[in-house]
Amino acid sequence: MTALQYPTRVAAMATGAPPLGAAMCPILGALTFFSIYVSFFSVVLIALSRYVRITKSIDTYRKLFGPFRSFLWVCLSWVVSALLVAPGFLGYGKFGWNSRNKTCGQVYPHPYQSHYFSNVFGVTCWVTLCLAVAIFLKIYFDVRNSVMKLVEANSGGDHHPDQHVPKRLIKQTKHMFIFFCALAISISPYVLLNSIDMHVRFLPSAVRIMLIALFGLNHVMNPFLYAWKLTIFKRAFRALFRCESRLAVQPRAAVNR
């Protein structure tokens, strides 16, 4: 998104023409949707990983989300994302120059452009966001039950350490939930309103541009959110600004590489 799509989108909006030529425009359009799909599935995988880590044993977590299994999960998300892009090359919509938004994406006008956006992109967005919400809610209720068990155990003088969730895991999950909320808040209005507007035009151009800007803001916010909540990212950004090739070693830091 940062290295390829944003620069080419800015160039397209400035010149009013495909930034790398008409031949590259379908590829850029497909990559835009592909990267968004990967983001959606990554959110679900993060939520699922947090759920298994908090509610299941560490052995179960390692079986499902060890290094190799995590690699397979990511590969699966890429394969499914590619399958969701495929209809745009098979006549159900078409990737290329969008004369309405002046970007490389779904060709406009096209008889199936609105159907692809609503039925493939829109449905994928809402299904993945709803799945993530359901998983985070399940985590919340499980953590709440764990706290209640801990209180009951302490009041009865019978303390079992395995009856509650460690604070460190709760803190990490809260961070992931904040990142998810930023994604949902920035993406949901664009997907919902545009899915309707694709069939029944009612959005003014200014509102449509604002929704697109809010949608793109998600990718801009992520680095700042990570730096705000995670110490290792603060150190990494500090090193980048200082042009340092390595992170400064800090005593008791979780990562000193």
Topology of this protein?
Blueprint: H1 5-15, H2 25-55, H3 58-65, H4 67-85, E1 95-98, E2 103-106, H5 113-155, H6 167-197, H7 205-229, H8 231-241
Antiparallel strand pairs: 1-2
Helix pairs in contact: 2-4, 2-5, 2-6, 3-4, 5-6, 6-7, 7-8
Characterize the structure shown:
With 257 residues, the protein is mainly α. The chain has 8 helices and 2 strands. It has a two-stranded antiparallel ribbon with strand order 1-2. Strand 1 and strand 2 form a beta hairpin. The mean pLDDT is 80.
Summarize the structure.
With 257 residues, this protein is mainly α. It is 70% helix and 3% strand.
Write out key terms for the chains shown.
257 residues; mainly alpha; 2 strands; globular
Class per helix and strand makeup: mainly alpha
Question: How is the largest sheet built, in terms of strand order?
Answer: 1-2
The number of strands is 2
Largest sheet: 2 strands, antiparallel
Radius of gyration: 22 Å
State mean pLDDT (0 to 100 scale): 80
Number of helices: 8
**Spans of at least 5 consecutive residues with low confidence:** none
Report helical residue fraction: 55-70%
| Overall spatial form | globular
Beta-strand percentage range: under 5%
Distance between the termini: 26 Å
Helix and strand run:
HHHHEEHHHH
